[in-house]
Amino acid sequence: MADFDAKVELSKIPHEPGVYRYFDELGEVIYVGKAKDLRNRVSSYFAKSNQHDRKTKRLVSQINRLEFTIVPTEWDALLLENQLIKRFQPKFNILLKDDKSYPFICITHEPFPRVLTVRRVDRKLGTYFGPFANQRAMYALLDMFRELFTVRSCHLNLSPENIESQKFKVCLEFHLGNCKGPCEGRVSENEYDIEIDQIQSILKGNLTLPQQYFKEQMVQAAEKMAFEAAHEWKTKIELLSNFQSKATVVNPRMGDIDVLTIVSDEEAAYLNFMKITNGYVVATQTFDIKKKLDEPDEELLAMMLVEMRETYGSEAKELISNLKPDLDLKIEVVIPQIGDKKKLLDMSLKNVLFFRREKAERRAVEASATTSKRDRILIKMKADLQLKSLPRHIECFDNSNIQGTNPVAAMVCFKEGKPSKKDYRHYTIKTVIGPNDFASMNEVVGRRYARLLQENEPLPDLIVVDGGKGQLSAACDALKELNLYGQIPIIGIAKRLEEIYYPEDSLPLYIDKKSESLKLIQQIRDEAHRFAITYHRDKRSRYSLVSELENVEGIGKKTAAVLLKHFRGVKAIRESSLETLAAVVGPDKARKVKLYFDNMTSEN
């Protein structure tokens, strides 16, 4: 925001409909919005900013630059906004993505087209119908197509040249009566395409055309005394009528209508879309979108209307909804009060409310399952260790000194049974000379809780010490010095038999090896050990590098540490030029370092 002068930028924006884009200091698009009056809308972000919610304040604080595009109408702004959100995926927008989660039915663009199910849309491949949120309904359609029509299922390239050269032979599907053998030229493209047209009509929700065609074929067969063929056509009419009776019919005279309803809470909006074609519900989808800012329902409804109409290929002139956006949508928006349209609205809202309730119940069950499992383990640990309260905050200490060098310690923290890595701490042993695990444990425990007391931070519900009676006793002495002994439960866990030791008790506790509480204690102990070992290796590696640099005459530990901090390793120091080294430690020391490594190279 430092380089962004809101007053100057706002003065450049016209009172026209359009789309605006906010950029951060890295040049990334962070928000795309539409407006029927660009200046008024953009100005609202910078005026009375104290009235914005937390998310909007975050957005405004990150705006470094803005761009806008003027468009003829609000509807054009809505379309452009939709495309830009998909393109840039801004972090403060509700993310709109091309739908790849639901399948489509595709009728391919090729000689003797095939009917396929696909998830990736490539308009060059064919004509798409869907998506189908209900896959069972989609497969029921495909099963009906197989019974009604004889469309090929093979992947052969049935070009006129290949058919004429008799490149292919009919397969089992032909002998079963499921295909008319276009691969051998047994059916013309025109005759084959008649069936494809029937399939397209059904997928578009228009059953009149295939019904009429089947009746004509039945009558012609009967007139020719081909009663067996006439019966087959009659069976197909009955099959199509049966499908029609199961389809959701609203009112055949209603024509083509879209239905989109919305309800929302603070976190998300829940919507139901229905596509009505010739009075039939041919597509429906219920979904939720997570709010990024405090977007009003009217704005979300308009945005998702564009998305749904594009996804389902709808060109209906009327929309039934429970809200009426203050926006020229180039489509009549109706909030019906009576009749069949009111029934449609009620059916859509019923789906939305059921979906929201189901989502809430699922979240509650998942939260309950997670909580019950976590609390079950902590309750079990409380009982196993005879604690007075649940150990929601556990801290565990471990020492590491391989062959007595570079002694270090580590503390890991678990909250609610899970690692709280931001609370992990490393310790370099300061007061202990040589390998003395007991004294090291005493030092780090004392330093940790002296610091918490000084900063008035909450103390843990349980302290775990990696080790047996000796380490536990040393940790207890540190607590006594701070007058904390007896206030915080503390235990030691010995590795050999996983015994649990208590202060001033020579007899260990053996918890069942299958116990969830023991497994959690082991997990905490192992994490402390890993964290300590990692730090020790890093420190030992760094110490060895410092030691090597100290071989250079006139270079001490302090200079060696400066070099390593800058170059990150001896190799980088060795390969650096004299000028680069001089910029870090001065010309005199740089010459000494350069001479040392040059001599090493010549000796080798």
TrEMBL record:
GO biological process, alphabetically ordered: nucleotide-excision repair; SOS response
This protein's GO CC annotations: cytoplasm; excinuclease repair complex
Keywords: Cytoplasm, DNA damage, DNA excision, DNA repair, Excision nuclease, SOS response
Alphabetical list of Pfam families matching this protein: GIY-YIG (PF01541), HHH_5 (PF14520), UvrC_RNaseH (PF22920), UvrC_RNaseH_dom (PF08459)
Top-level taxon of the source organism: Bacteria
Database matches in InterPro entries: GIY-YIG_endonuc, GIY-YIG_endonuc_sf, GIY-YIG_UvrC_Cho, RuvA_2-like, UVR_dom_sf, UvrABC_protein_C, UvrC, UvrC_RNase_H_dom
GO molecular function: DNA binding; excinuclease ABC activity
UvrC family homology region profile domain ranges (all copies): 293-479
Record localization: Cytoplasm
Domain called GIY-YIG: residue spans: 15-94
Function: The UvrABC repair system catalyzes the recognition and processing of DNA lesions. UvrC both incises the 5' and 3' sides of the lesion. The N-terminal half is responsible for the 3' incision and the C-terminal half is responsible for the 5' incision.
NCBIfam families associated with the record: uvrC (TIGR00194)
Self-association state and partner proteins as the record states: Interacts with UvrB in an incision complex.
Family to which this protein belongs: Belongs to the UvrC family.
Stored HAMAP family: UvrC
Name of the protein in question: UvrABC system protein C
Organism from which the protein derives: Arundinibacter roseus
Upper taxonomic lineage: Bacteria, Pseudomonadati, Bacteroidota, Cytophagia, Cytophagales
Gene name as annotated: uvrC
